[in-house]
Amino acid sequence: xxxxxxxxxxxxxxxxxxxxxxxxxxxxxxxxxxxxxxxxxxxxxxxxxxxxxxxxxxxxxxxxxxxxxxxxxxxxxxxxxxxxxxxxxxxxxxxxxxxxxxxxxxxxxxxxxxxxxxxxxxxxxxxxxxxxxxxxxxxxxxxxxxxxxxxxxxxxxxxxxxxxxxxxxxxxxxxxxxxxxxxxxxxxxxxxxxxxxxxxxxxxxxxxxxxxxxxxxxxxxxxxxxxxxxxxxxxxxxxxxxxxxxxxxxxxxxxxxxxxxxxxxxxxxxxxxxxxxxxxxxxxxxxxxxxxxxxxxxxxxxxxxxxxxxxxxxxxxxxxxxxxxxxxxxxxxxxxxxxxxxxxxxxxxxxxxxxxxxxxxxxxxxxxxxxxxxxxxxxxxxxxxxxxxxxxxxxxxxxxxxxxxxxxxxxxxxxxxxxxxxxxxxxxxxxxxxxxxxxxxxxxxxxxxxxxxxxxxxxxxxxxxxxxxxxxxxxxxxxxxxxxxxxxxxxxxxxxxxxxxxxxxxxxxxxxxxxxxxxxxxxxxxxxxxxxxxxxxxxxxxxxxxxxxxxxxxxxxxxxxxxxxxxxxxxxxxxxxxxxxxxxxxxxxxxxxxxxxxxxxxxxxxxxxxxxxxxxxxxxxxxxxxxxxxxxxxxxxxxxxxxxxxxxxxxxxxxxxxxxxxxxxxxxxxxxxxxxxxxxxxxxxxxxxxxxxxxxxxxxxxxxxxxxxxxxxxxxxxxxxx
Length: 722
Fold this sequence. Notes:
- By secondary structure, the chain is an alpha/beta fold.
- Helix content is 38%, strand content 21%.
- The chain starts with a helix and ends with a helix.
């Protein structure tokens, strides 16, 4: 079963191979078909170096016997019909044919079954195929997603694919590294390594197939679904036993996004404007236009403010204009606070004024059953090259410029976290949390209906924004998932990107003609592509906010060894569970380090990992053990579990830990430290003190501190820092 040198090659498709595939697809298009026959699929696979078995197409029973005898028994025989996609269901597959006589009989049986299944089906013959024996059955495939475009898939194949649905996805075209990560990304990856004395599969052979499939569907966008199922993977090679290719010649890939330079130029003027027009500005309390004016003025914005109102001469002491076209100076951003039905006309005036950005607060567009209004403003934006934020948003905050372009709560807590949300309610939660936690932000941005500006535009801006060190985004969908993924992959190398994808429990799977398509649940795609892009995924709003707060506080770890030091055995167990849950590695304690810790803990305590110092110990025990943990280069991160006792009160513990941290940092020992505090209400103050001094700490939780540490590790790994 050794595949040829041609089949094993790394993909470097020349014009001849592409021409061969194009010829086949043109013939399919001419026949007005939506799928390729198995022989056509083989030719496509041959062109792209995807190994398939020996085969031939029989036109008669005698022909079937001759072909089978020539290639050697046993063989598999399958119906060849563009009208029968699921061959097994039609009784169109017979396996294990061992003689010429059996081949003749199988030919007649398959033919009869096919005619019974679909009397008018066009039958081109019976495929006689070398039967593959042994190996692990896997599936390699591709689907076309509305948001992410071309995706390549890998998982267990055969009947297992339908039972276990153990499949992972990556954007196509995939790299060899992407492909190898897919092999490790399924739950049953150990089966590929060989179980119960079985041979491991040839990982490189499988990776080649994944890469080649991903390149094929990228080169020919009309291939909307592709299945290789099963692929027989052995120690020696990997060969696709069955090929299924579905096409849609009307499919049009998404247009390429704007260049990063173009995005940044526009976003800089929107987010850091020298002049803002408020369209619908009002002196009347309770109006959105009044709230926006108040926030701009009271927030300390130093740029020009131009109120726009058809009848007012001045608003809140500032000269008003009937139209933006009447304003003598340059305007960078226009904030809209007028009813939806008037937006398009006013937006066109902004276009004539050459205003590059519009912040569309009004609702009443697509979200309210008026898509035509939204389509109209999009057309106006495209005509005049105006970037649109919204509609149906609360506006945005950019604290370095003291810019509060919103009708919501005024906000002035400056920090380095940039957050965005698709929902106004979530935006307010961000405001409240950041103020309560003293986190501070560089920006809070509402995206609403995302008629134009979306998450990848924000990523481009915050990537180059010196005031932002972490980007956290809440979204219900990604308008252009591929553009987002490509931006996130680039940005996450420099700054952590955290995403809370709402709607992860929706079914999301669409009816599809292939196994791969049927398995492509929406959230699974998000999960895998976000991981591929280096994004840290938050599972809840609280996680999103805690990651935004905690990740910048922690220094980047220099290795994977995590040590737990705890005063409570129960906390140690729960913290250990959290370590595993968050993909962290509990350090195996070396004998010399174990002996060193035992010098500081009571005889009834426990060294090892976790280090259990017990609850009745004085502050010095915490101090000595944490100093040792920070000073030993084999330990890369510390998790502290504190138990409230009168011997070591909460604030005594907190102040001692901050002193130790500062002392050791002065000596060059800089490591991430997180803490879990169990006790009475005094632990709340202690936790806050620790956090404000560089140790993310949580009262009443063993999960949250480890989740924050785990998020830091995920980013560091993705950015290549570990």
